[in-house]
């Protein structure tokens, strides 16, 4: 058995936002693959798969190729800017350890640069954070940023008041958490607003540049913009030679195989499969169940037994808003909110973490943050940037940044549908 991955670690993505907001360190939620799999006699190859040759039964790597008898494709998803890829350099998304560390750097640097900035307008821009996308990732990022500014950093600066930072959450649909019942989504909104987050739902982002975010015709000056509005399946799916849906996912059989192929399984964010009338969500518990099921179906094939269809056991979904506050559906049926939902969220995430060391480290950091109102992973890496200056207007003359309410330029590419 061989595992090919371009990273040498397993990542627990549901807690990635806590690395981005300085609660946890990368090693708390990531474990080396060789350490996890070595005792199972699995060969681990550090390489990037670029495509699959179905006919030749080979995985093509960036620097070689690998033959297979049975193949499980679980390459996940990447950020989708809905045709506006130029926005990526201004509004990073959150999918990897590298993404999380860079976002943490940008967030912490914003406060450090604001402490030195003499210009009040530029200081306001530095202390304005815009999150695009009101799904679980956007909600959790917004709540965590609000807690950083209102609690963790509030006594650490002399020239600025971090509690005055603006956290703005933009969502294209008319309520946050579009896949949740509306009553829970409204509770999430109320909890965020109590933390001081400005929630703007039912509005569309038309442009993102270095100066800020355009929401319709309104410009929000901001130096830190974060993208949580959409994902698309890994580009590897295009090499599988089957039809893809709008998000680039593969419509798989009930057994999780490619249509017409029993030797190639597709799981996780790359797979489109329904439970009843609704697609199975691209969440970690679903991917874990699919991985186990695909492996069992391969074993059944080797034993000459028929494969079994996949049945998703939905144990529920939760989104944490802040200290002692969360919303969720237990067992996909029972709505929960407030402190009880927060405790359920804590228990579920610790349960699914891999390894005693990770569980202990996460619990210790959570306890410290809860008791001390502090963040233990506030490390800024890389060179210290120069203080920002107002960008030049067209024609070369310097001018101040555009302000809220100024007419937005029209983006050439299509605007994100709904989510932003």
Automatic annotation (TrEMBL):
Residues 2-291 form the FAD/NAD(P)-binding domain. It is an enzyme of class 1 (oxidoreductase). The keyword Membrane applies. Its EC number is 1.6.5.9. The chain crosses the membrane at residues 339-356. SUPFAM superfamilies: FAD/NAD(P)-binding domain. It comes from the Bacteria. InterPro entries: FAD/NAD-bd_sf, FAD/NAD-binding_dom, NDH-2. It catalyses: a quinone + NADH + H(+) = a quinol + NAD(+). The keyword NAD applies. Pfam families: Pyr_redox_2 (PF07992). Residues 388-420 are annotated as: Disordered. Keywords: FAD, Flavoprotein, Membrane, NAD, Oxidoreductase, Transmembrane, Transmembrane helix. One of its GO terms (molecular function) is NADH dehydrogenase (quinone) (non-electrogenic) activity. Belongs to the NADH dehydrogenase family. This is NADH:ubiquinone reductase (non-electrogenic). The lineage of its organism: Bacteria, Pseudomonadati, Myxococcota, Myxococcia, Myxococcales.
């Amino acid at each position: 058995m061989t595992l090919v991955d371009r990273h040498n670690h397993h990542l627990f993505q549901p807690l990635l936002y806590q690395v981005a907001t300085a609660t946890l360190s990368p090693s708390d939620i990531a474990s080396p693959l060789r350490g996890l799999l070595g005792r199972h006699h699995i060969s681990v190859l550090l390489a990037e798969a670029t495509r699959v040759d179905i006919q030749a039964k080979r995985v093509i790597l960036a620097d070689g190729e690998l033959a297979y008898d049975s193949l499980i494709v679980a390459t996940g998803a990447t950020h989708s800017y809905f045709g506006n890829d130029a926005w990526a350099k201004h509004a990073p998304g959150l999918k990897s350890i590298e993404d999380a560390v860079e976002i943490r750097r940008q967030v912490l640097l914003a406060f450090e640069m604001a402490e030195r900035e003499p210009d009040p307008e530029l200081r306001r821009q530095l202390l304005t954070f815009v999150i695009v996308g009101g799904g679980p990732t956007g909600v959790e990022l917004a709540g965590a940023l609000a807690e950083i500014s209102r609690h963790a950093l509030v006594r650490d600066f002399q020239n600025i008041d971090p509690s005055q930072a603006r956290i703005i959450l933009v969502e294209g649909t008319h309520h946050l958490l579009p896949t949740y019942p509306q009553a829970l989504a409204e509770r999430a909104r109320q909890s965020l607003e109590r933390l001081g987050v400005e929630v703007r739902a039912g509005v569309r982002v038309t442009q993102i540049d270095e100066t800020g975010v355009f929401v319709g015709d309104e410009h929000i000056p901001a130096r830190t913009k974060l993208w949580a509005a959409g994902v698309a399946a890994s580009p590897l799916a295009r090499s599988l030679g089957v039809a893809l849906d709008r998000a680039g996912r593969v419509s798989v059989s009930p057994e999780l195989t490619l249509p017409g192929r029993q030797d190639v399984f597709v799981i996780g964010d790359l797979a489109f499969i329904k439970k009843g009338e609704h697609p199975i969500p691209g969440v970690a518990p679903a991917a874990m169940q699919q991985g186990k099921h695909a492996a069992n179906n391969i074993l059944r094939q080797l034993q000459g037994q028929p494969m079994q269809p996949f049945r998703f056991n939905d144990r529920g979904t939760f989104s944490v808003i802040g200290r002692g506050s969360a919303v969720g559906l237990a067992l996909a049926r029972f709505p929960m909110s407030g402190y009880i939902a927060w405790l359920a969220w804590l228990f579920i995430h610790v349960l699914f973490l891999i390894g005693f060391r990770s569980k202990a480290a996460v619990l210790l950091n959570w306890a410290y943050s809860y008791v001390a109102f502090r963040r233990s992973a506030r490390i800024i890496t890389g060179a210290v940037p120069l203080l920002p200056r107002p960008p030049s207007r067209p024609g070369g003359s310097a001018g101040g940044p555009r302000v809220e309410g100024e007419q937005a330029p029209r983006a050439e590419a299509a605007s994100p549908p709904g989510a932003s």
